[in-house]
Write a structure and sequence with these properties.
Layout: H1 6-13, E1 19-23, H2 29-42, E2 50-54, H3 57-71, E3 79-82, H4 83-94, E4 105-106, H5 109-120, H6 125-140, H7 145-150, H8 155-173, E5 176-177, H9 181-192, H10 194-203, E6 206-209, H11 217-227, E7 233-237, H12 252-260, E8 265-269, E9 271-272, H13 277-287, E10 299-300, E11 309-313, H14 316-332, E12 342-346, H15 352-361, E13 366-369, H16 378-391, H17 396-404, H18 412-425, H19 429-433, H20 438-441, H21 444-465, H22 469-484, H23 486-493, H24 497-518, H25 537-542, H26 544-550, E14 560-564, E15 573-578, H27 601-619, E16 622-631, E17 633-636, E18 639-642, H28 647-651, H29 663-685
Parallel strand pairs: 1-7, 1-8, 2-3, 2-6, 4-5, 6-7, 9-10, 11-16, 12-14, 12-15, 13-14, 15-16
Antiparallel strand pairs: 17-18
The chain binds adenosine-5'-triphosphate and magnesium ion.
């Protein structure tokens, strides 16, 4: 119980019913979860019967580390993972009840776009992505294709719903699921299969959920089915930090808790342990105009600290220079010892580039988190397609990518005919390839090459299943890449040798990382399998997609963090620079957005409130110092437009005296002063009066 205040202790000690910890940023909510896990084990609950759900894989890894520090080895058995990883677990164990093989594939967004293009008969990726977006929202609302069609408001929605039906058929045929299915299908499973539901409810002794304010409707339903009537769960959250509304997260989940669970114990935390008084005041002021779901007050005992700085910049480049200068001067002043003490936070991914350039120029090490994922690179996706095909032969998208990368003399005509044949007999491409009647549809030579490929995949699958541990995995992967001539393929297909070398080095990194996961050396198995155990390569391969989109491969390196505000949730840094605080960026374009034209003001107001919460999240990441910068001129597409300071800067209601003047103005004044004095001195030396 040490290191917890009274309210935190109350939440930790309340174990026999539903508990909600509702509190502002930095008040120790996540700490309550970690300590409660430890406490539950101390009181005799088996570690493996505890489930803690985090928002990202990275947060899960961190929590596992902390739990290990508190309770030692037992922590290994606690299931700490995201809702999505939990979905994988549920479907792997009990998905058969829904007709899903345990080796189902998890499609990444790229695959989904490709399948939708096919299902909707378009070659336009943007159109396919619009469908993807709509289908994802429907799935998050718990609607299937038929229900989506029934509630469609216009022709466009009706068409999309029909495409959804075709998309779903394909997924079933490929034995594949998308990310939304990782929540939706387990929900269906627990809903429709009493025995499975009873089993899980009996098994789980306590469920804990961090960042509860950003759960969506299906996640809440899943939680309800997992805990059953007894409701042994602990949810922690902050309505002021709900920033995923655009992805279907809903504050209704917070409102529903006291209604659905009349016995709900609500604990409020009021002390902020993260930020100085000045930072916390700015945060409280910013969030003040938003409507309050639950009234909250937050105080800090860390002293007033440095005033919050407002930095005005000429343009993006200037802003980046000033951010780097600030990092360097804080370090020189001994205020931030390590590079990892600093973070630059921004609204949109594209803002990172200028900061990357400036940091590189100044030779400051950095990482971009929440940006393009390692796993989105073409070479890594190539390898993942092969791995997926070993795990699940029916994964047609993976089949097509693997059979053509590198090229092996099986051309589009052959693959086209194979596709038609498979469609006729309702087989996967892989099944079709071994069909005895294929010979009637394709020339013997084509059938021969297909058989050769099929046998090769079977052989790889067999070997991957029996490859255990890091050493064997490493050797196996190296052999395989040599077999398929992947390095040569990269050099042949890249114009620049340097680029090919960089790609090959990514491939080697990837193999190392896979091998380490097989050896159980990395604690980031997404919480699907237990850490510390040797795993087969095939087993490790199945969770690849899950890790990919969530892109949580980062280790705790000593580097400056560049991050979107969305990806900074739950984290903290001694020094934070919140950049690009101009109207149109933060808040993000509210009025000139086509989607919003003609919409009721209510919609715009809600968007503004979510942007304000985003600002609140950004401010409250800072422990000791915070600088907020804005641009006089900013790029907007190809144009340069005048920048207006974000309304949130005014809303922070900073004391005028604390707003630092523009250093260039100061320099100008100093120079003028210096010139005047030198003129005086020169005149005095000359014996005259100036
Ligand atoms: P967020 O809303 O950003 O997710 P949170 O409420 O989850 O924040 P934590 O991350 O758990 O807050 O805690 C914030 C910081 O305060 C951490 O560094 C944590 O170690 C520290 N902290 C929390 N509770 C205490 C306490 N009782 N005593 C000392 N330090 C604490
Ligand atoms: Mg937290």
């Amino acid at each position: 119980m040490s290191g917890l205040n009274l309210a935190q202790q109350e939440a930790v000690n309340y174990m026999h019913g539903p508990c909600l910890v509702l509190a502002g940023a930095g008040s120790g909510k996540t700490r309550v979860i970690t300590h409660k896990v430890a406490r539950l084990i101390q009181t005799g609950l088996e570690a493996r019967r505890i489930l803690a759900i985090t928002f990202t894989n990275k947060a899960a890894a961190e929590m596992r580390e902390r739990a290990k520090g508190l309770i030692g080895r037992d922590a290994k058995e606690v299931v700490i993972c995201t809702f999505h990883a939990l979905g994988v677990r549920l479907l792997r164990q009990d998905g058969a009840a829904l007709g899903l093989k345990p080796q189902f594939s998890i499609l990444d967004t790229g695959d989904v776009t490709a399948i939708l293009k096919d299902a909707g008969g378009t070659t336009d990726a943007a159109t396919a992505r619009q469908w993807q977006w709509a289908i994802s929202l429907w799935k998050n609302m718990g609607l299937n294709a038929a229900q989506a069609e029934a509630q469609a408001k216009d022709d466009n929605e009706r068409v999309t719903a029909r495409i959804m039906a075709r998309y779903e058929e394909r997924l079933t045929a490929y034995q594949s699921v998308d990310f939304d299915d990782l929540i939706g299908l387990p929900l269906k499973l627990l809903h429709e299969h009493d025995a499975v539901r009873d089993k899980w409810q009996r098994h789980l002794g306590h469920v804990l959920v961090d960042e509860y304010q950003d759960t969506n409707a299906t996640q809440y339903e899943l939680l309800k089915l997992l805990v059953g009537e007894r409701g042994r769960f602990t949810a922690v959250g902050d309505d002021d930090q709900s920033i995923y509304g655009w992805r279907g997260a809903t504050l209704d989940n917070l409102k529903r808790l006291p209604q659905d669970w009349p016995q709900l114990k609500v604990v409020k935390l009021e002390q902020n342990y993260r930020s100085t008084g000045a930072i916390l005041r700015a945060a409280n002021n910013v969030i003040q105009p938003n409507p309050k779901l639950f009234p909250k007050t937050l105080f800090s005992e860390l002293g007033e600290g440095e005033p919050v700085r407002v930095v005005d910049c000429d343009n993006e480049e200037h802003e980046a220079e000033r951010a780097v200068a600030r990092i360097q001067s804080l370090r020189a002043a001994g205020l931030g010892k390590d590079w990892k003490d600093f973070a630059v936070l921004y609204r949109a991914n594209h803002q990172a580039r200028v900061f990357e350039q400036a940091l590189r120029k100044a030779q400051v090490p950095y990482k971009v988190s929440g940006g393009q994922s390692f796993f989105d690179r073409a070479e890594i996706r190539d390898l993942c397609a092969w791995l997926r095909l070993w795990v699940n032969n029916d994964d047609d998208p993976a089949f097509l990518r693997a059979v053509t990368t590198p090229k092996r003399g099986i051309g589009h005509t052959t693959l086209g005919s194979l596709g038609v044949f498979a469609g006729q007999y309702k087989l996967s491409l892989f099944e079709a390839l071994f069909s005895s009647s294929l010979g009637a549809a394709l020339p013997a030579r084509a059938v021969g090459s297909l058989h050769e490929f099929g046998r090769y995949v079977n052989d790889l699958e067999y070997r991957a299943r029996h490859t255990l541990g890091a050493e064997d995995a490493k050797a196996f992967l190296a052999d395989w890449l040599k077999d398929i001539g992947y390095e040569k393929h990269l050099y042949d297909s890249e114009d620049s040798e340097k680029l090919a070398a960089a790609r090959w080095s990514n491939v080697l990194d990837f193999c190392d990382w896979m091998a380490k996961r097989c050896g159980g050396e990395i604690d980031d198995s997404a919480g699907v399998a237990l850490a510390g155990e040797k795993k087969s390569l095939l087993e490790v391969a199945q969770t690849i997609s899950l890790l990919s989109t969530l892109s949580e491969r980062e280790q705790d390196q000593n580097v400056v963090t560049l991050s979107t505000l969305h990806a900074s949730k739950g984290l903290e840094w001694p020094h934070v620079m919140l950049v690009g605080c101009v109207e149109g960026l933060l808040p993000f374009k509210l009025d000139d957005d086509d989607g919003l034209k003609g919409q009721a003001n209510e919609g715009i107001l809600q968007r503004l409130q979510e942007e304000r919460r985003l600002m609140y999240v950004g401010i409250t990441r800072a422990q000791r110092s915070l600088a907020v910068s804005w641009l006089r001129k900013r790029k907007k597409g190809r144009e340069v437009v005048a920048g207006q300071p974000s309304r949130f800067i005014a809303e922070m209601a900073l004391d005028k005296a604390t707003v630092k003047e523009d250093p260039r103005e100061k320099l100008k004044a100093l120079r003028a002063e210096f010139a005047r004095r030198s003129a005086e001195a020169a005149a005095a030396a000359a014996g005259g009066t100036p």
